[in-house]
């Protein structure tokens, strides 16, 4: 009971608007060849940090249809928020840690509550290409190695708070080194040896040969994210998968 009260008190204490940062957009050298080697990305706003446990608890308290045990099975599996102590208590996880085990449907509903949506893949990829001083650091082997180092670390039972790593040049935190993230068009990220593939297409989605179809074959970190998202259904939940939201440019 004490932890539940503490969680609720924290939620009441963090009633403030989420921070969205403007991103001017531009031309993106995308990893997905079906979109062409480069794609235009219009200006947009992106949440500076992933959605946290406390923020998502506030959402489910206001929208009980998204509470664990009440969400329709069509929109969330039994793994939905299964790491929380109860439907209204995120203990033993920290309030400022990113919420995970959230389905795409629930993440989309949360973003809609902020007047936003999940970012598209190209919006996420555009922002994630940057480091603290460059808008596109992807050709830097040291930067890629730093990101890959995160994948080599064993997963932890309790995630750290958001915002502990330095922000990138846009002021966006944690696009790498903390969690995977849902994107709005995740079910369009077909990574196959042949983009015309039909039927058993998903069999190839996580196949190593699929990497040959990517536009940036050396960016293994991006390949892993695409392969994970392409293998999911909208009602799935993963313990290392969270989300952030995006809005049109003002």
Automatic annotation (TrEMBL):
Keyword field contains Signal:
yes
Entry-linked Pfam families = FGE-sulfatase
Residue span(s) of domain Sulfatase-modifying factor enzyme-like: 37-247
Gene3D superfamilies according to UniProt: paralog of FGE (formylglycine-generating enzyme)
UniProt keyword annotation of RNA-binding present: no
What keywords does the record list, in alphabetical order?
Answer: Signal
The residue range of the signal peptide is 1-17
In terms of InterPro entries, this protein maps to: CTDL_fold, Sulfatase_Mod_Factor_Kinase, SUMF_dom, SUMF_sf
One GO molecular-function entry:
formylglycine-generating oxidase activity
Q: What is the name of this protein?
A: Formylglycine-generating enzyme family protein
């Amino acid at each position: 009971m004490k932890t539940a009260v503490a969680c609720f008190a924290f939620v009441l204490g963090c009633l403030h608007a989420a921070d969205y940062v403007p991103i001017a957009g531009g031309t993106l050298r995308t990893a997905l060849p079906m979109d062409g080697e480069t794609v235009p990305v219009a200006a947009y706003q992106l949440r500076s940090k992933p959605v946290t446990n406390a923020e998502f608890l506030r959402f489910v308290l206001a929208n009980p249809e998204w509470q664990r045990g009440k969400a329709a099975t069509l929109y969330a599996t039994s793994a939905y928020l299964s790491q929380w102590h109860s439907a209204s208590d995120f203990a033993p996880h920290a309030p400022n840690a990113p919420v995970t085990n959230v389905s795409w449907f629930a993440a989309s509903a949360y973003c809609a509550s902020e007047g936003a949506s999940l970012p598209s893949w190209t919006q996420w990829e555009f922002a994630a290409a940057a480091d603290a001083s460059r808008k596109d650091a992807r050709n830097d082997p040291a930067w890629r190695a730093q990101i890959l180092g995160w994948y080599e670390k064993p997963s932890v039972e309790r995630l750290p708070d958001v915002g502990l790593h330095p922000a990138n040049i846009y002021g966006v935190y944690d696009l790498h080194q903390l969690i995977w993230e849902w994107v709005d068009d995740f079910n369009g990220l077909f990574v196959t040896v042949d983009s015309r593939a039909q039927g058993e297409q998903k069999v190839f989605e996580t196949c190593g040969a699929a990497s040959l179809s990517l536009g940036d074959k050396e960016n293994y970190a991006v390949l892993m994210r695409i392969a994970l998202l392409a293998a999911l259904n909208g009602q799935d939940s993963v313990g290392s998968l969270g989300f952030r939201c995006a809005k049109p440019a003002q």
